[in-house]
Design goal:
There is one protein chain. By secondary structure, this protein is of the alpha+beta class. It has one domain. It has three helices and ten strands.
């Protein structure tokens, strides 16, 4: 099982996000956020907002266009709708993180699988939004860390088995003050969470502290 490298600096927060759970926090410019897939194969639905102007939120399409890649990986910068750099991936044990699959919801689970009621990332996001004065109008297409959604030659796509193993992680440097929001995916109808939702670890630290 891989062990994330030791953190050098002052740890500001170290939280275990339970299976199907949710989490959010402010991450100051220059600070880092580490997301650890504790047991492996667990999708992480992620959004971020400019902490000083929440209308300036993560923009999936602009992030793909500016980086020139459908996948998020080492060196990828997440951009806002005003094309401001928000967070940059500075360490990555997986290499392919989804930008197009979006989040699960009761409506999608019913439409695709005729099955709902076990929770959803959309519900997690909306619940976490309340902490920051956000509403469903502030929702945006999200990143899915550790989730793997390959694109076929005719444009076909769907969630496949996540590539992350126990202990794999991604580190994000805040390029502005951000509000980072995580839904620990509760999906059981497709392999986005390995058919077995499991915990995550979120660590924020100041490398200069």
């Amino acid at each position: 099982m891989p062990t994330p490298p030791a953190i050098t600096g002052r740890i500001i927060e170290d939280t275990v996000i339970p299976a199907r759970g949710r989490w959010s926090a402010k991450v100051a410019k220059g600070h880092l956020l580490r997301i650890v897939d504790v047991e492996g194969k667990q999708g992480v639905d992620f959004l971020c907002y400019n902490a000083n102007d929440v209308d300036d939120r993560y923009a999936a399409a602009d992030t793909m266009k500016i980086n020139g890649n459908l996948f998020v990986g080492l060196g990828t910068t997440l951009y806002s709708i005003n094309c401001n750099p928000m967070m940059t991936v500075v360490a990555d044990r997986v290499g392919f993180h989804d930008t197009i699959g979006g989040c699960c919801s009761d409506a999608v689970n019913i439409k695709r699988y005729n099955n709902a009621g076990h929770g959803s990332c959309r519900a997690n996001f909306l619940a976490e939004f309340k902490k920051w004065g956000l509403t469903q109008k502030d929702y945006a297409a999200n990143v899915n860390f550790f989730a793997y959604v390959p694109i076929g030659p005719k444009g076909e796509m769907d969630f496949r088995d996540p590539l992350s193993e126990p202990g794999d992680h991604v580190d994000l440097r805040a390029d502005m003050d951000v509000i980072a929001i995580i839904s620990n995916c509760p999906q059981i109808n497709n392999p986005a969470a390995g058919f077995n939702p499991s915990p995550l670890q979120a660590v924020i630290w100041d490398p200069e502290g």
